[in-house]
Amino acid sequence: MDAEFTAERNAIRRTLRHVLDRHSGPDEVRAAARSPQGYDAALWATLARDHGLPGLAVPQAYGGAGRGTLALALAGEETGRALLPSPLVPTACLVAPLVLALGTEAQRTRVLPRLASGELTGALAVPPGTLPVALGLTAPAGPGERTGREYRPGGEPAESGRADSGRPVGGWSGGGRTGGIQAHRAADGWRLYGEAAQVLGGHSAGLLLVAAHAGGFTRSRTLLFLVPDDAAGLVRVRHSALDETRAAARVELRDVRAELLGGRDEHDVRPALAALGPRVAAVLAMEAVGAADGALERTVEQVTSGAGAGRGPCGSPRAIRTLLAEAYLRVRTARATASYAAWTVGTDRAWTAATDEAEARAAAGGALAAGLEALRFAAGEAVRLHGEAGSTREQTAHLSFRRAAGDDLLFGPVHRLRHRAAEEAVLYAGGAGSEEAADVREGDVARTDAQRAPVARTEAKGGEGARTDADNGGTARTGAENAGGALTDAEMGKAARTGAEKGKAARRGEEKEDAARGAAGKADGF
After folding, report:
1. HEC states along 25-43?
2. Is residue 387 within 8 Å of 309, Cβ to Cβ?
3. Which of 522 and 14 is assigned the larger pLDDT?
């Protein structure tokens, strides 16, 4: 394995950092986030035209750079460091790959060049709060929902798109005639009706990619549809989000005419969405690492300079150094895992084996969990070490803190990301509901049968040579009570055998003593 970044990839990183340092200071970030589009349109046009940012992973045949997911992840790290409000994630990570994977040739030719050039931005609309579930990064939550694998790498989806239980796979796309977004075929094409909340960039995107439920109960399936921003019946309302640098909107579709992505409606698209999950997770992980690293750098600068409302940080220098060292360690660890995940999903390997895709899913999910956790810790310490200034909403430290909290709500939570990554890595050997899995989740040490067998044999051998305290009638005190340390079974067996040997020696001594007394008696008789 050679996961070292090439000179070209490092050049992408340096160039973006240079541009963003000049045009994305704290004041510029706030102004861009509060603009009607939710981002700086002029800066986005510059990044798209001069640096090809939205087209990094789009093939050259469709107007992109063809650099792959790894280059896009490196770009995400730099945009995350600057907390840049941009349509990069919804456009380049969600919409463009799905159009490339599922669209017809005519749709690719019409849509992808405009996305790659920055002329058109996109957004993926799924039912509220279900984006990580749709991407296969977490399992459905709630009573009655399954927590095992709804998507099996390498498996062919059923045409009905339903699980063995008769319920929709994953349980996130509506699942019936009510809820989510519904699609039905009319005389003039497909029509959509429903609502999706928390659509990233949905209020200003020029193209919406909508996941809708079709087929009713008998042929339940989820399909993707292309909806332009000027479609009749489309209503979009921007949210007042916790993280203003990630603009989100509520999208309402009131009998909206839509174009089916791919032109065929026989197969469910949820496996394709789940297959996209590792690539999205790798980019988001690198973005979280960049945001955490930026928060740590700004905190170190504040602590060493003593700036911030005329006051230094609260706490002793030793305590501050300890917190900064822990934050540094977490960020470096998260960067290592995110880099490996980006390399895993971004290299041109054969994806025919299910083990390769399972490895990528486990690596990407774990990396996203580590990145979000590092960002949360670094941002929290940034707010604390800024003293009074850290509690001010206008501080950059507060922007980092809200980015951490918002990303955990949108793409997490962390513990569910880790649980799904552990399932993909087959760490729960006995199954998600078994006693072994419960031991692992609770943090107990669960030994396998193969590990237990030698121990059992050792205990049996020790039992042959050592009688238990119950047999001897004694009271067994533990090693911790007797000497503060525990004797192993082998040591106890040796002690018992030594005792038996001493007993034999004692009996032999008694016999010799009796013989001596007998000999003395005979001598007295003569």
Report:
1. CHHHHHHHHCCCCCCCHHH
2. yes
3. 14
152-155 contact pairs (CB < 8 A, 24+)? 152/354, 153/275, 153/354, 153/357, 153/358, 153/361, 154/352, 154/353, 154/354, 154/357, 155/271, 155/354
Nearest to 258 by CA among 190, 180, 186: 190
Can you tell me the mean pLDDT for 163-182?
A: 51
- Name beta bridge partners: 184: 191
The answer to whether the beta carbons of residues 325 and 331 sit under 8 Å apart is: no
Q: Which residues contact 43 (CB under 8 A, 6 or more apart)?
A: 23, 24, 32
Per the CB < 8 A criterion, the answer to whether 237 and 193 are in contact is: no
Which H/E stretch holds residue 461? helix 449-465
Tokens of 469: 């305290």
Burial class of residue 34, CB neighbours in 10 A (0-12, 13-18, 19+): exposed
Token pair, residue 445, equals 């040490």
Residue closest to 102 by CA, chosen among 264, 277, 304:
264
Mean pLDDT of 445-462: 47
Does the pTM surpass 0.85? The reply is no
Q: Is the peptide bond before 413 cis (omega within 30 degrees of 0)?
A: yes
Per-residue pLDDT reduced to its tens digit, 177-224: 446 899 999 988 999 999 998 899 999 999 999 999 988 766 788 999
- Asked whether 127 and 181 are in contact (CB, 8 A), the reply is yes
Say if strands 221-228 and 207-214 run parallel, antiparallel, or are unpaired: antiparallel
Beta bridge partner(s), residue 28: none
- Angle, CA 68 vertex, CA 354 and CA 97 arms, to 5°: 75
Helices (H), 245-350: 270-305, 317-346
Question: With the C-alpha atoms ordered 413, 417, 422, 426, is the resulting torsion angle positive or negative?
Answer: positive
Q: CA distances (Å), 133 to each of 105, 252, 291, 301, 365, in order?
A: 29, 21, 24, 39, 12
Three-class DSSP category at 170: coil
